[in-house]
């Protein structure tokens, strides 16, 4: 439990740092973003493996360890959703306010269960649209991005999680969101090289500020 | 650890400190790079405000040779200004990331200075004479009425107060999408390289409208990005060889004769990770922040967050020497992540004979490691010791347990006082150490 909390805290901290680094002069620093995403990934793996360990005593089948998270997430998600309180929108403004950032860290664990309901709601709408409604300016772009992301997120999933089953952990959509959005982060400015950029790469750079905010709202809300 | 050491029992003395005394540091005054020229006579600093300040060593007074010449301001100029990239809606910082001197070929001095996107070649020249006695102009520059000119004379040069002028001779722009972290002048003195996070470009000093891309590690799909370039340097003697370090702790040596695009390395220097040291932040502390060849060209030194490693170019699988800079921080990595200190990029440098290496740490401490005696020393750059020729007292950090007298505990270290940039005179035991906004110059004790 302590490990989970610590991992969660570090994930929130990393998200805040990523957001804050966007605001710095000179723009997004690729090296810093990469380092933050590495820490995010380690924290997530730690969180998920701590989750798996916590669930271990509940399972009667010994060899089924990799499949445990699959059995349990629907139950987990539902139970957290039940405890969700109506004011699920509250967490989102907090990370945006840089002065209150430290309190965002504290409250993130506190408001952990609440946003699950909100994120589920958003999740279904975004999946049905096949993209992220608020992120891309045109329908055509959204279609291309959907193809790119579906390919990319599966690639990233393969690369990032050694045991594939862990990707379908307790918070499958958190994992997917983080993979998709934070790899998208690396596509943000500087996204356009002097030579001809592929169309899909240029898109996140069109509205980087929006996508970043949405990313962070999603990621933090998903906690 | 011995108390004395750091180079044949050298005793380091305070010599000078440059910069404002206030504790309130203006961000523009934060020193971002320090570099001696090839003779050591000139010392350049760059700051966050885009300014370059050059200090010149006074000629030694042969009679009073109790200390070497002092460094005084020689020239100050604004190298880079903040710019705005309209396409990406990004501000381009004017902070000087690196300065590199060209070897002197004539009376003027040349240096390259770079910010995140643009490299500039500056010419620094002296003017100590001026022409006087023009026919058509008065001494103050006003034109004379031609009808009043009755005789002709030849203007002559008369001495004037020394004026040092800096002028930008070349501007190398628009070649980097990502942030430039290194520049390095080739031993052919005609070309130089500039490196950003994903690419390295080769330039000719005379040609500004094109450069050759020699390394490109940008993946086709940015989602697959796993490492970036953190530093690059040309070999001091072989004009075809250069190295670049990565955020994963590897160094690649490339030979430009092998192919035009040096994506495939000739040598890969990598030390296998010690599994006992594996932690949550292992990946990010293995990132190399600086790489420097020895003057001889036989070795290279790398700096990662906690250590300095010396590599023999002939041995790729592990460094020949490893020095722990501040191992007591290993258990504090989480806090250092929180306060962003874990991302600090420390530099390192060799002394002229390659026998001692130096690097900075926190609390305004800096460390020296003597490769021959294997002794190391920790010294502090502080205004408390600012009487000239005061010998610096070695410092010690107490990692745990009982703190001895004069030791400092890890928890009382000031992490805002960091020494990221240090430089060693190429020939003598004179070092320049940059704290946040001050430049300290120390010399060895001359009896």
Number of strands of chain B: 32
The total tally of domains of chain B equals 1
Instruction: Please describe the biggest sheet of chain A, giving its number of strands, its sense, and whether it closes into a barrel.
Output: none
Could you tell me how far the N terminus lies from the C terminus of chain A, measured between alpha carbons in angstroms?
Answer: 15 Å
Structure class of chain B: mainly beta
CATH class of chain B equals: Mainly Beta
Q: List how many beta strands of chain A DSSP finds.
A: 0
**SS field, number of helical segments of chain A:** 11
Low-confidence stretches of chain A: 60-178, 182-223
Number of helices of chain B: 2
Mean pLDDT of chain B: 92
Which helices and strands occur, and which strands form pairs?
The complex is a heterodimer of chains A (223) and B (447).
Chain A: H1 2-23, H2 30-55, H3 68-71, H4 73-82, H5 93-96, H6 101-110, H7 113-129, H8 139-160, H9 172-187, H10 199-206, H11 208-222
Helix pairs in contact in A: 1-2, 1-6, 1-11, 2-9, 4-7, 8-9, 9-11
Chain B: E1 12-18, E2 31-36, E3 42-47, E4 51-57, E5 71-78, E6 83-85, E7 90-92, E8 98-101, E9 109-114, E10 119-132, E11 156-172, E12 182-185, E13 191-195, E14 199-204, E15 207-216, E16 229-234, E17 241-246, E18 251-255, E19 267-269, H1 282-285, E20 290-293, E21 299-303, E22 307-312, E23 321-324, H2 333-338, E24 348-350, E25 356-360, E26 365-370, E27 376-380, E28 396-398, E29 407-409, E30 421-424, E31 430-434, E32 439-444
Parallel strand pairs in B: 28-29
Antiparallel strand pairs in B: 1-32, 2-3, 3-4, 4-5, 6-7, 8-9, 9-10, 10-11, 12-13, 13-14, 14-15, 16-17, 17-18, 18-19, 20-21, 21-22, 22-23, 24-25, 25-26, 26-27, 30-31, 31-32
